[in-house]
Structure formats: structure tokens, C-alpha cells
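Hey, can you fold this one?
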Amino acid sequence: MHSMWVKPLITVFCIIFVSEFDMEKVTILGIESSCDDTSAAVIQDGVIRSNVIAGQAVHERYGGVVPELASRAHQQNIIPVVHDALKQAGIAKEEVSAVAFTRGPGLLGSLLVGTSFAKGLSSALDIPLIEINHLQAHVLAHFIKEDENDRDQPDFPFLCLLVSGGNSQIILVKSYSDMEIIGQTIDDAAGEAFDKCAKVMGLGYPGGPVVDRLAKQGDPDRFTFSKPRIDGYDYSFSGLKTSFLYFLRDELKVDPDFIEKNKEDLCASLQKTIVDILMDKLYRASNDLGIKEVAVAGGVSANSGLRSAFEEYSLEYGWKIHIPKFAYTTDNAAMVAITGYYKYLDGEFSQPDVVPYARVSI
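Sure. Predicted structure:
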């Protein structure tokens, strides 16, 4: 009689055990320190719970990021940023399933701070460590859910235009882990073109947001600048920068106040040229591959002209577009955490001897 109850009891126990296991939430703590922003975020079952970012105003006086100053600031910021991210998420550190961190690309000194902290926390909590490619994270930022009912994510395959200060790429995204760069800049990136042209006009650093603000008040058709002729889906922005520089040089000889008198129109015309270059190649790729699911990512995706262009192409060519929230355009840990979430589900964990890298492709 006793043996009659053994098997049913074991079955009930297994059902309860499996149910409890299935109900356990996957909680990823993401850490981002690739450049001058220290960020930590918590993603739970794909849903954002917190995303804390500490910037570094110290670089403004130098007109660019100073690597040594950046790494020092990361050391000061990382503990309070992680603390705030966990607190805002309402998560105890013991509830974290894994620690995801940016391994690269980026500034090596800055990456070392985030990598070292992630390793220490992973070891202390005895939880998996997950390395993240910064570029892949920008792409997967589109899969961050604002709540459990959020279904506004791209369908595979889709094209993603990744544009930032260091990258201008068209990426064919086949799955969370399978991405192929089909076009990229052969010299300068779009964000670099914005910043350097802004610097020539004396608009300060970072120049991209200033150009965008002034462009809203200017005439985008007032001035014409050269556009490159590059085969395939690749980009080039060095010629545009040179064209812009020579144009200003010639005009300033005639009128020393030319920039001040025309800065709104200069910014609007510059922005239109850069956006046209980006969208032309993206349209070609979409048309050639027959893919109408199109996304944009990276710091330059915050640009109002580029966002408007995506809206226009959506209406004209039937694209289903995906434009990230402003919080996910710049470097942030939420994109690191969501990438870590999918890697966690696939069991892709890192060894404790992993080291950061300054340069790497997607």
C-alpha cells in the first residue's frame, strides 16, 4: 500500500519543483563603461526595471573625451550607479541572475573599470558573467520592453542603421545573435562629421546636438555640400568634412562674420546632407534585399532630421520602422542588460579571465 503512493507523490513533487523553477525570474544587471558614461541597468524577463546613467561634464572644456579622466570618473561613479540601479529596480543583489558588461569596443581604460567591477560582483555573488559587444547592444536596444505587454519589437530579419560618433553601419539582423555588417564607413563616421563640422563653426562639444537644435531654425536647402560616390552600401564622410571646411574658409575671406550670420542655415544644410547620405544607402539595401523592417540605433539616432527621414521613408516606401527612445540612443546599460538577457537564455557565459578589447567588429 505504501508503494502505491510513492510514484504519485514523486510526480506531484516534480510538478511543483518545475513550476517553481519556471516562475523564477531572469534578472540581469547590465554595466556600461565604454566611453564617458557610467551606466547600470536592471532587466527582468526582458522588461526594463531601471537604467541609471552618470555623465562626465569634465570633458567639455577639452572639446572631446580625455581617456585618463574618463577612467578615473568611472571609478568614482560605478559603485553609486550600480547601487542606484538596484534600488530603483527594487531588486536585492542576491536576486540578480547574471552580470552583463560591455567588453568592447571602447576606451580601454574605461572598459577595464566596468570589466573589473563586473568580475568582482559575479565572483562575490557566484553568478554567471556575460560579456557584451557594445555594437550588438545598440542593435538589441530595440528589444527592451517597457512592460510585460510591450510587443513593439522588430521581426527578423531586419535592417538596422547603426550611427554614432565612431560607427556608421548597415547591419542585416537575422537573429539575436546573428548579425552581418553589409555596409560601413570607409573613413569617418556620421557622428564624427557632425562633431568636427560643429567644432569648425565654434559650436562646442558635443557638436551633434547643437547642430540639430540650430538646424530646426534654418533652411536645409540654402547651401549644397559634396556627397561621396562609394560603391555598394559603404559610407564615406571625410569628403563632406573637407568640402564644408573649404566652403567656410572661402566665405570667411569675404565676410568674417559669415558663420554667425548663417549658422542656422549652415547647420540645416549640413544635417540634410548627412541624413541624405545615410538614407540613400539604407534605401538601396532595403530595396535590394526586399526587407521593409528597418531600425535605427546609436547616438545619432537621436537626431531629429534622421528621425523625420525614417518617418518619411515609412510613408513613401511602406517601411515598418523602429526608432529607439531617446534614453536608449546614447551609451546606456539597458541595452547591455537586454543583450545579456538573451545570452543568458542561450547559456553564453564568460570565463573570469576575460579581458576588454578596444576595437572589434559586430
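The longest helix spans residues 258-289. Let me know if you want another pass with a different chain boundary.
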